[in-house]
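Figure caption, in words: inputs first, then the predicted bound structure.
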Amino acid sequence: MNNAEEKPKRKIIHIDMDAFYASVEQRDFPEFRGKPLAVGGSPDGRGVVATASYEARKFGVRSAMSSKTALQLCPHLLFTKPRFEAYKEVSQKIREIFSRYTDLIEPLSLDEAYLDVSEDKMNIGSAIDIAKAIKDAIKNELNLTASAGVSVNKFVAKIASDINKPDGLTFIGPSKIIPFMEALPVEKFFGVGKVTALKMKNLGLFYGSDLKKLSENEMQKHFGKTGKFFYQIVRGFDDRPVNANRISKSIGAEDTFENDIDDIEVLKKEIEKLSIIVYNRLNVKNKEGKTLTLKVKFSDFSQITRSYTFINYVTDQKVIFENAVELLNKIDLENKKIRLLGVTISNFYNEENDIITFRQLNLFDDFEEAD
Ligand SMILES: [Mg+2]
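Bound structure (magnesium ion present):
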């Protein structure tokens, strides 16, 4: 008898608000409705888009894109400043809706959470019905839409919520998981960034079924720790529980470049972009930290980190940016090319007593977009 089959299946829902910041702005300000809108960034081309409305996405505007690029794609794009207080308030209301059905809630960000409804407080039983009820409540009470993915593990639930966005509900049952993972293009695997996807394709790996041809060791050799994880996931194994007690210890962002970089000005631009993303994440997660860490990975895959601890908590994006550049300046870059940069803030205020509301993403926090 196979142990894996004996275990009772979990019922996992992944809820993801649709274009969250932009949708809240369009809800609250009628002049933005039906218009291509960027939250974050600026019409003078500076800064980075945090979230784009669906009207803007039609032009190719995306999260983490520079305003300059966004304007090239969509010249009549409107910009508005993020209102984190408003998003936090909505997020708390969404959380309250979740808590009617379960206490096993693992928020990934302001607009996204895993729910374990294996046992639900209302005795509804069907995870699909619970997902529907949650979506309805969000629509009726908050005038916003969410997409839901329902499955027996977190990985599949998360991919499922993305399938019929916006306002989608996708169920992938146990018998569908294996064929679903086999047919999934590699770039759709949650956690596979553009660089990893390219690497996979260069190895002739285009779909989940291709990944399955590699042994666990081969996967690890090519893709490191995540390779091992993908080996499991493509076979439908994901035992990670919905963790309602995870507290973030750090918040960061990193980027692997398509081509290795040695131009200091380009590197500075990258650091600025990462600083803005980190600053926004600190804001939405209500965090202030004292320690700044810069991670640098070179073209030969060797990696170093440099940290600086401030006397006071960092509350300014410019401070993050300027000090991260300082850290970079202290590294000997002679004859070296850089393939990845990362900026992280840790050493948070009042870590122990932090209200368990905003938690770190488990595996791929660094790659999460504010969608
Ligand atoms: Mg979202």
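The longest helix spans residues 264-284.
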